Protein backbone atom coordinates (compact mmCIF):
# COMPACT_ATOMS: atom_id res chain seq x y z
CA UNK A 1 0.00 0.00 0.00
CA UNK A 2 1.08 3.57 -0.58
CA UNK A 3 2.30 5.58 2.37
CA UNK A 4 1.66 9.24 3.17
CA UNK A 5 3.81 11.70 1.21
CA UNK A 6 4.23 9.28 -1.65
CA UNK A 7 3.76 10.02 -5.34
CA UNK A 8 3.05 7.17 -7.71
CA UNK A 9 4.58 7.26 -11.19
CA UNK A 10 2.99 5.44 -14.13
CA UNK A 11 5.03 5.12 -17.31
CA UNK A 12 3.52 4.31 -20.70
CA UNK A 13 6.22 3.65 -23.32
CA UNK A 14 9.68 2.23 -22.74
CA UNK A 15 11.52 2.90 -26.01
CA UNK A 16 14.49 5.23 -26.60
CA UNK A 17 13.15 8.04 -24.41
CA UNK A 18 11.29 5.80 -21.94
CA UNK A 19 14.46 3.86 -21.07
CA UNK A 20 16.47 7.04 -20.47
CA UNK A 21 13.60 8.46 -18.41
CA UNK A 22 13.59 5.36 -16.18
CA UNK A 23 17.27 5.74 -15.47
CA UNK A 24 16.76 9.44 -14.61
CA UNK A 25 13.76 8.50 -12.43
CA UNK A 26 15.88 5.94 -10.60
CA UNK A 27 18.52 8.61 -9.83
CA UNK A 28 15.85 11.17 -8.86
CA UNK A 29 14.07 8.72 -6.52
CA UNK A 30 17.41 7.88 -4.88
CA UNK A 31 18.26 11.58 -4.42
CA UNK A 32 14.85 12.73 -3.26
CA UNK A 33 13.71 11.44 0.14
CA UNK A 34 10.46 13.39 -0.04
CA UNK A 35 8.03 12.92 -1.65
CA UNK A 36 8.84 9.25 -2.01
CA UNK A 37 8.59 8.34 -5.70
CA UNK A 38 7.23 4.87 -6.48
CA UNK A 39 6.80 3.32 -9.90
CA UNK A 40 3.36 1.69 -9.92
CA UNK A 41 2.79 0.98 -13.61
CA UNK A 42 4.87 0.53 -16.73
CA UNK A 43 3.87 -0.68 -20.19
CA UNK A 44 4.76 -0.92 -23.83
CA UNK A 45 2.13 -1.59 -26.47
CA UNK A 46 2.40 -5.32 -25.81
CA UNK A 47 3.23 -5.75 -22.13
CA UNK A 48 2.41 -4.21 -18.78
CA UNK A 49 3.68 -4.51 -15.22
CA UNK A 50 1.66 -3.42 -12.18
CA UNK A 51 0.37 -4.75 -8.89
CA UNK A 52 -3.31 -4.66 -7.93
CA UNK A 53 -2.40 -3.20 -4.52
CA UNK A 54 -0.12 -0.50 -6.11
CA UNK A 55 2.94 -1.91 -4.31
CA UNK A 56 6.08 -0.47 -5.91
CA UNK A 57 7.85 -1.91 -8.92
CA UNK A 58 11.62 -1.91 -8.42
CA UNK A 59 12.83 0.83 -10.82
CA UNK A 60 16.34 -0.70 -11.02
CA UNK A 61 15.15 -3.77 -12.92
CA UNK A 62 11.77 -2.56 -14.18
CA UNK A 63 12.72 -3.08 -17.85
CA UNK A 64 13.77 -6.70 -17.32
CA UNK A 65 10.66 -7.37 -15.24
CA UNK A 66 8.50 -5.76 -17.95
CA UNK A 67 10.14 -7.91 -20.63
CA UNK A 68 9.44 -10.99 -18.51
CA UNK A 69 5.85 -9.97 -17.71
CA UNK A 70 3.07 -12.10 -19.13
CA UNK A 71 0.43 -9.35 -18.61
CA UNK A 72 -0.91 -7.57 -21.68
CA UNK A 73 -1.68 -3.87 -21.13
CA UNK A 74 -5.29 -3.21 -20.07
CA UNK A 75 -7.33 -0.86 -22.25
CA UNK A 76 -6.29 2.78 -21.80
CA UNK A 77 -9.54 3.67 -20.01
CA UNK A 78 -8.93 0.78 -17.60
CA UNK A 79 -5.43 2.12 -16.97
CA UNK A 80 -6.94 5.50 -16.04
CA UNK A 81 -9.46 3.81 -13.74
CA UNK A 82 -6.68 1.82 -12.05
CA UNK A 83 -4.54 4.92 -11.54
CA UNK A 84 -7.44 7.14 -10.45
CA UNK A 85 -8.26 4.64 -7.68
CA UNK A 86 -4.69 4.71 -6.32
CA UNK A 87 -4.18 5.58 -2.65
CA UNK A 88 -1.77 8.44 -3.54
CA UNK A 89 -1.38 11.16 -6.16
CA UNK A 90 -0.27 9.89 -9.56
CA UNK A 91 1.86 11.34 -12.35
CA UNK A 92 1.33 9.66 -15.71
CA UNK A 93 4.40 9.79 -17.97
CA UNK A 94 3.51 9.22 -21.63
CA UNK A 95 6.71 8.26 -23.47
CA UNK A 96 4.91 7.08 -26.60
CA UNK A 97 4.05 8.87 -29.82
CA UNK A 98 0.58 7.35 -29.69
CA UNK A 99 -2.51 9.34 -30.71
CA UNK A 100 -4.68 6.94 -28.66
CA UNK A 101 -2.73 7.69 -25.48
CA UNK A 102 -2.85 11.43 -26.29
CA UNK A 103 -6.62 11.33 -26.62
CA UNK A 104 -6.85 9.89 -23.14
CA UNK A 105 -5.38 13.01 -21.50
CA UNK A 106 -8.66 14.90 -20.86
CA UNK A 107 -10.10 11.87 -19.03
CA UNK A 108 -6.86 11.26 -17.10
CA UNK A 109 -6.64 14.91 -16.05
CA UNK A 110 -10.33 15.01 -15.14
CA UNK A 111 -9.71 12.03 -12.84
CA UNK A 112 -6.86 13.93 -11.13
CA UNK A 113 -3.84 12.32 -12.81
CA UNK A 114 -1.07 14.76 -13.69
CA UNK A 115 0.69 14.23 -17.02
CA UNK A 116 4.23 14.81 -18.29
CA UNK A 117 5.17 13.84 -21.83
CA UNK A 118 7.42 14.38 -24.87
CA UNK A 119 4.51 13.21 -27.09
CA UNK A 120 3.49 15.98 -29.53
CA UNK A 121 0.22 14.38 -30.61
CA UNK A 122 -2.10 15.76 -27.93
CA UNK A 123 -0.93 19.35 -28.26
CA UNK A 124 -0.71 19.46 -32.04
CA UNK A 125 -3.90 17.57 -32.87
CA UNK A 126 -7.28 19.24 -33.12
CA UNK A 127 -7.74 22.55 -31.31
CA UNK A 128 -10.70 20.92 -29.51
CA UNK A 129 -8.38 18.32 -27.92
CA UNK A 130 -6.03 21.12 -26.82
CA UNK A 131 -8.94 22.96 -25.18
CA UNK A 132 -10.27 19.78 -23.57
CA UNK A 133 -6.85 19.03 -22.06
CA UNK A 134 -6.32 22.43 -20.48
CA UNK A 135 -9.90 22.83 -19.31
CA UNK A 136 -9.79 19.35 -17.66
CA UNK A 137 -6.54 20.33 -15.93
CA UNK A 138 -7.87 23.64 -14.70
CA UNK A 139 -11.06 22.03 -13.35
CA UNK A 140 -9.36 19.16 -11.51
CA UNK A 141 -6.14 20.93 -10.52
CA UNK A 142 -4.04 18.16 -12.09
CA UNK A 143 -0.93 19.37 -13.94
CA UNK A 144 0.17 18.85 -17.53
CA UNK A 145 3.68 19.59 -18.87
CA UNK A 146 5.17 18.77 -22.27
CA UNK A 147 8.56 20.54 -22.54
CA UNK A 148 10.13 17.84 -24.72
CA UNK A 149 7.37 17.99 -27.32
CA UNK A 150 9.35 20.83 -29.00
CA UNK A 151 13.16 20.89 -29.20
CA UNK A 152 13.57 17.82 -26.92
CA UNK A 153 15.20 18.93 -23.64
CA UNK A 154 15.86 22.52 -24.82
CA UNK A 155 13.86 24.96 -22.66
CA UNK A 156 11.66 26.14 -25.53
CA UNK A 157 8.16 25.77 -24.12
CA UNK A 158 9.02 26.97 -20.61
CA UNK A 159 10.75 30.03 -22.09
CA UNK A 160 7.79 30.89 -24.30
CA UNK A 161 5.39 30.45 -21.36
CA UNK A 162 7.58 32.71 -19.21
CA UNK A 163 7.67 35.39 -21.92
CA UNK A 164 3.88 35.30 -22.29
CA UNK A 165 3.10 35.00 -18.55
CA UNK A 166 5.35 37.94 -17.63
CA UNK A 167 3.59 40.16 -20.13
CA UNK A 168 6.17 40.37 -22.93
CA UNK A 169 4.73 40.63 -26.40
CA UNK A 170 6.04 37.84 -28.65
CA UNK A 171 5.97 39.11 -32.21
CA UNK A 172 7.70 36.30 -34.09
CA UNK A 173 9.13 32.83 -33.49
CA UNK A 174 11.48 31.38 -36.07
CA UNK A 175 13.81 28.43 -36.17
CA UNK A 176 15.05 25.05 -37.24
CA UNK A 177 12.88 22.59 -35.34
CA UNK A 178 14.00 19.27 -36.78
CA UNK A 179 17.35 17.59 -36.10
CA UNK A 180 16.96 15.69 -39.37
CA UNK A 181 16.37 18.81 -41.46
CA UNK A 182 19.17 20.58 -39.63
CA UNK A 183 21.65 17.80 -40.45
CA UNK A 184 20.47 17.57 -44.07
CA UNK A 185 20.77 21.27 -44.87
CA UNK A 186 23.96 21.87 -42.87
CA UNK A 187 25.64 19.22 -45.07
CA UNK A 188 23.77 19.88 -48.35
CA UNK A 189 24.30 23.67 -48.27
CA UNK A 190 27.10 24.44 -45.76
CA UNK A 191 28.16 28.04 -45.19
CA UNK A 192 31.70 27.02 -46.28
CA UNK A 193 32.35 24.65 -49.21
CA UNK A 194 30.07 23.06 -51.73
CA UNK A 195 28.05 20.45 -49.89
CA UNK A 196 26.83 17.12 -51.24
CA UNK A 197 24.12 15.96 -53.62
CA UNK A 198 20.67 16.11 -52.00
CA UNK A 199 19.88 12.39 -52.40
CA UNK A 200 23.34 11.40 -51.06
CA UNK A 201 22.78 13.54 -47.97
CA UNK A 202 19.35 11.99 -47.37
CA UNK A 203 20.89 8.49 -47.65
CA UNK A 204 23.73 9.48 -45.31
CA UNK A 205 21.27 10.90 -42.77
CA UNK A 206 19.30 7.66 -42.85
CA UNK A 207 22.44 5.51 -42.41
CA UNK A 208 23.50 7.64 -39.42
CA UNK A 209 20.08 7.15 -37.83
CA UNK A 210 19.00 10.80 -38.17
CA UNK A 211 15.85 10.03 -40.15
CA UNK A 212 12.73 7.98 -39.50
CA UNK A 213 12.85 4.48 -41.06
CA UNK A 214 11.05 6.03 -44.07
CA UNK A 215 12.76 9.44 -44.63
CA UNK A 216 9.55 10.78 -46.18
CA UNK A 217 8.18 11.02 -42.61
CA UNK A 218 10.79 13.75 -42.02
CA UNK A 219 10.73 15.31 -45.48
CA UNK A 220 6.97 15.91 -45.52
CA UNK A 221 7.41 18.72 -42.95
CA UNK A 222 4.59 17.45 -40.71
CA UNK A 223 6.82 16.91 -37.66
CA UNK A 224 7.93 20.56 -37.86
CA UNK A 225 4.33 21.66 -38.46
CA UNK A 226 3.26 19.87 -35.28
CA UNK A 227 5.91 21.74 -33.24
CA UNK A 228 4.89 25.06 -34.80
CA UNK A 229 1.25 24.32 -33.95
CA UNK A 230 2.19 23.87 -30.29
CA UNK A 231 4.24 27.08 -30.11
CA UNK A 232 1.67 29.12 -32.02
CA UNK A 233 -1.08 28.02 -29.62
CA UNK A 234 1.10 28.88 -26.62
CA UNK A 235 1.71 32.29 -28.19
CA UNK A 236 -2.07 32.78 -28.33
CA UNK A 237 -2.98 31.78 -31.89
CA UNK A 238 -5.89 29.31 -32.06
CA UNK A 239 -4.29 27.20 -34.81
CA UNK A 240 -6.80 24.55 -35.85
CA UNK A 241 -4.34 21.77 -36.78
CA UNK A 242 -0.85 21.22 -38.25
CA UNK A 243 -2.42 21.03 -41.70
CA UNK A 244 -4.25 24.35 -41.42
CA UNK A 245 -1.27 26.46 -42.58
CA UNK A 246 1.23 26.23 -45.47
CA UNK A 247 3.74 23.39 -45.05
CA UNK A 248 6.24 22.73 -47.82
CA UNK A 249 6.92 19.05 -48.39
CA UNK A 250 10.33 18.08 -49.78
CA UNK A 251 8.96 14.86 -51.24
CA UNK A 252 8.72 15.17 -55.02
CA UNK A 253 5.07 14.59 -56.07
CA UNK A 254 6.11 11.64 -58.23
CA UNK A 255 7.66 9.87 -55.22
CA UNK A 256 4.75 10.26 -52.81
CA UNK A 257 3.38 6.88 -53.87
CA UNK A 258 6.66 4.94 -53.49
CA UNK A 259 5.92 1.67 -51.74
CA UNK A 260 8.74 1.93 -49.18
CA UNK A 261 11.47 4.20 -47.83
CA UNK A 262 14.06 2.19 -49.77
CA UNK A 263 12.09 2.52 -53.01
CA UNK A 264 11.93 6.30 -52.36
CA UNK A 265 15.70 6.55 -51.74
CA UNK A 266 16.44 4.62 -54.91
CA UNK A 267 14.35 7.01 -57.05
CA UNK A 268 15.33 10.25 -55.30
CA UNK A 269 18.56 10.97 -57.32
CA UNK A 270 16.42 11.65 -60.42
CA UNK A 271 15.05 14.71 -58.59
CA UNK A 272 18.34 16.14 -57.31
CA UNK A 273 18.28 18.96 -59.87
CA UNK A 274 15.28 20.67 -58.17
CA UNK A 275 17.21 21.00 -54.91
CA UNK A 276 20.43 21.95 -56.77
CA UNK A 277 18.54 24.82 -58.43
CA UNK A 278 17.28 26.05 -55.06
CA UNK A 279 20.81 25.89 -53.64
CA UNK A 280 22.23 27.75 -56.66
CA UNK A 281 19.57 30.48 -56.40
CA UNK A 282 20.49 31.04 -52.74
CA UNK A 283 24.23 31.04 -53.57
CA UNK A 284 23.70 33.69 -56.26
CA UNK A 285 22.20 35.92 -53.57
CA UNK A 286 25.15 35.15 -51.23
CA UNK A 287 22.87 33.05 -49.02
CA UNK A 288 22.18 29.48 -48.00
CA UNK A 289 18.91 27.58 -47.96
CA UNK A 290 17.44 26.14 -44.73
CA UNK A 291 14.19 24.36 -43.75
CA UNK A 292 12.54 26.53 -41.14
CA UNK A 293 9.30 27.16 -39.36
CA UNK A 294 8.04 30.61 -38.49
CA UNK A 295 5.16 32.15 -36.61
CA UNK A 296 4.28 35.77 -37.27
CA UNK A 297 2.12 36.34 -34.22
CA UNK A 298 0.82 39.79 -35.13
CA UNK A 299 -0.17 38.72 -38.65
CA UNK A 300 -1.54 35.37 -37.38
CA UNK A 301 0.59 33.52 -39.97
CA UNK A 302 2.36 30.19 -39.50
CA UNK A 303 4.45 28.53 -42.20
CA UNK A 304 6.97 25.78 -42.68
CA UNK A 305 9.35 25.43 -45.61
CA UNK A 306 12.54 26.50 -47.36
CA UNK A 307 13.94 29.99 -46.72
CA UNK A 308 17.20 31.71 -47.62
CA UNK A 309 19.50 33.18 -44.98
CA UNK A 310 22.67 35.26 -45.05
CA UNK A 311 25.69 33.07 -44.27
CA UNK A 312 26.29 34.96 -41.02
CA UNK A 313 22.71 34.47 -39.79
CA UNK A 314 22.52 32.19 -36.68
CA UNK A 315 20.12 29.87 -38.55
CA UNK A 316 22.62 29.48 -41.41
CA UNK A 317 25.54 28.89 -39.06
CA UNK A 318 23.89 25.98 -37.21
CA UNK A 319 26.04 22.83 -36.86
CA UNK A 320 25.34 19.10 -36.99
CA UNK A 321 21.76 18.22 -36.12
CA UNK A 322 21.19 21.06 -33.66
CA UNK A 323 17.91 22.95 -33.35
CA UNK A 324 17.72 26.72 -33.04
CA UNK A 325 14.69 28.71 -31.94
CA UNK A 326 14.60 32.53 -31.96
CA UNK A 327 11.99 34.47 -30.00
CA UNK A 328 11.45 38.03 -31.23
CA UNK A 329 9.68 40.03 -28.54
CA UNK A 330 9.00 43.61 -27.55
CA UNK A 331 11.44 43.40 -24.63
CA UNK A 332 14.23 41.73 -26.59
CA UNK A 333 13.93 44.24 -29.45
CA UNK A 334 16.00 43.58 -32.56
CA UNK A 335 18.19 40.91 -30.97
CA UNK A 336 16.07 37.83 -30.41
CA UNK A 337 16.29 35.50 -27.45
CA UNK A 338 17.91 32.43 -29.01
CA UNK A 339 17.86 28.84 -27.77
CA UNK A 340 20.16 26.38 -29.50
CA UNK A 341 21.43 22.83 -29.02
CA UNK A 342 20.57 19.18 -29.48
CA UNK A 343 16.90 18.81 -30.39
CA UNK A 344 16.83 15.00 -30.30
CA UNK A 345 18.33 12.06 -28.42
CA UNK A 346 17.07 9.84 -25.62
CA UNK A 347 18.95 11.42 -22.73
CA UNK A 348 18.24 15.06 -23.55
CA UNK A 349 14.59 14.34 -24.34
CA UNK A 350 14.18 12.42 -21.09
CA UNK A 351 15.79 15.37 -19.27
CA UNK A 352 12.88 17.55 -20.40
CA UNK A 353 10.45 14.91 -19.14
CA UNK A 354 12.22 14.54 -15.79
CA UNK A 355 12.42 18.30 -15.29
CA UNK A 356 8.67 18.49 -16.00
CA UNK A 357 8.14 15.77 -13.39
CA UNK A 358 10.12 17.80 -10.86
CA UNK A 359 7.92 20.84 -11.61
CA UNK A 360 4.78 18.78 -11.10
CA UNK A 361 6.12 17.35 -7.84
CA UNK A 362 6.79 20.84 -6.51
CA UNK A 363 3.13 21.67 -7.10
CA UNK A 364 1.29 18.52 -6.04
CA UNK A 365 3.42 17.01 -3.27
N1 LIG B 1 13.82 10.15 -29.55
C1 LIG B 1 13.96 11.49 -29.58
O1 LIG B 1 15.04 12.02 -29.82
C2 LIG B 1 12.76 12.37 -29.29
C3 LIG B 1 12.92 13.78 -29.26
C4 LIG B 1 11.82 14.58 -28.95
C5 LIG B 1 10.59 13.98 -28.69
N2 LIG B 1 10.47 12.62 -28.75
C6 LIG B 1 9.16 12.03 -28.49
O2 LIG B 1 9.27 11.10 -27.42
C7 LIG B 1 8.31 10.06 -27.58
C8 LIG B 1 9.03 8.71 -27.48
O3 LIG B 1 10.00 8.63 -28.50
P1 LIG B 1 10.96 7.35 -28.62
O4 LIG B 1 12.05 7.74 -29.52
O5 LIG B 1 11.27 6.82 -27.26
O6 LIG B 1 9.97 6.30 -29.37
P2 LIG B 1 10.15 4.72 -29.45
O7 LIG B 1 11.56 4.33 -29.24
O8 LIG B 1 9.44 4.30 -30.70
O9 LIG B 1 9.33 4.17 -28.18
C9 LIG B 1 7.94 4.28 -28.07
C10 LIG B 1 7.47 3.42 -26.91
O10 LIG B 1 6.07 3.62 -26.74
C11 LIG B 1 5.42 2.35 -26.71
N3 LIG B 1 4.05 2.52 -27.17
C12 LIG B 1 3.62 2.96 -28.37
N4 LIG B 1 2.27 2.98 -28.41
C13 LIG B 1 1.85 2.54 -27.19
C14 LIG B 1 0.57 2.34 -26.60
N5 LIG B 1 -0.54 2.59 -27.26
N6 LIG B 1 0.53 1.89 -25.32
C15 LIG B 1 1.65 1.60 -24.62
N7 LIG B 1 2.91 1.79 -25.14
C16 LIG B 1 2.99 2.25 -26.39
C17 LIG B 1 6.26 1.48 -27.58
O11 LIG B 1 5.99 0.11 -27.30
P3 LIG B 1 6.25 -1.02 -28.44
O12 LIG B 1 7.72 -1.09 -28.59
O13 LIG B 1 5.63 -2.25 -27.82
O14 LIG B 1 5.52 -0.55 -29.65
C18 LIG B 1 7.66 1.91 -27.14
O15 LIG B 1 8.00 1.30 -25.91
C19 LIG B 1 7.63 10.32 -28.95
O16 LIG B 1 6.44 11.01 -28.76
C20 LIG B 1 8.65 11.19 -29.67
O17 LIG B 1 8.06 12.02 -30.65
C21 LIG B 1 11.52 11.81 -29.03
TrEMBL record:
Residues 13-147 form the Aspartate/homoserine dehydrogenase NAD-binding domain. NADP(+) binds at residues 13-18. Its cofactor is a metal cation. The keyword RNA-binding does not apply. SUPFAM superfamilies: Glyceraldehyde-3-phosphate dehydrogenase-like, C-terminal domain, NAD(P)-binding Rossmann-fold domains. L-homoserine binds at residue 212. GO terms for molecular function: homoserine dehydrogenase activity; NADP binding. Transmembrane segments: none annotated. It comes from the Eukaryota. It catalyses: L-homoserine + NADP(+) = L-aspartate 4-semialdehyde + NADPH + H(+). Keywords: Amino-acid biosynthesis, Methionine biosynthesis, NADP, Oxidoreductase, Threonine biosynthesis. It holds the Pfam family Homoserine_dh. NADPH binds at residues 96, 120. One of its GO terms (biological process) is methionine biosynthetic process. Its EC number is 1.1.1.3. InterPro entries: Asp/hSer_DH_NAD-bd, Bifunc_Aspkin/hSer_DH, HDH_cat, HDH_CS, HDH_short, NAD(P)-bd_dom_sf. The active site is at 227 (proton donor). Residues 155-358 form the Homoserine dehydrogenase catalytic domain. Signal peptide: none annotated. Pathway: Amino-acid biosynthesis; L-methionine biosynthesis via de novo pathway; L-homoserine from L-aspartate: step 3/3; Amino-acid biosynthesis; L-threonine biosynthesis; L-threonine from L-aspartate: step 3/5. The keyword Oxidoreductase applies. PANTHER family: HOMOSERINE DEHYDROGENASE (PTHR43070:SF5), PTHR43070. Catalyzes the conversion of L-aspartate-beta-semialdehyde (L-Asa) to L-homoserine (L-Hse), the third step in the biosynthesis of amino acids that derive from aspartate (the aspartate family of amino acids), including methioinine and threonine, the latter of which is a precursor to isoleucine; production of homoserine leads to a branch-point in the pathway as it can either be O-phosphorylated for processing to threonine, or O-acylated for processing to methionine. Belongs to the homoserine dehydrogenase family. This is Homoserine dehydrogenase.
Amino acid sequence: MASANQILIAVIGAGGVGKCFLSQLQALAARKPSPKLSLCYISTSRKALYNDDYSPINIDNALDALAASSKAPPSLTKVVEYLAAAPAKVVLVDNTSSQDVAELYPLALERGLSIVTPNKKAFSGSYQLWQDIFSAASTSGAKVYHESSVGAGLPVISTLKDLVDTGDSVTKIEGVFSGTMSFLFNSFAPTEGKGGQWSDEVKKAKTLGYTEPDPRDDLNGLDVARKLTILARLAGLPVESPTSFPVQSLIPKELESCTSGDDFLEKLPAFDQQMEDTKAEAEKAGKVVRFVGSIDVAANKVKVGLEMFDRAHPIAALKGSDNIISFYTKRYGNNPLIIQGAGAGGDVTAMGVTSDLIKVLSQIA
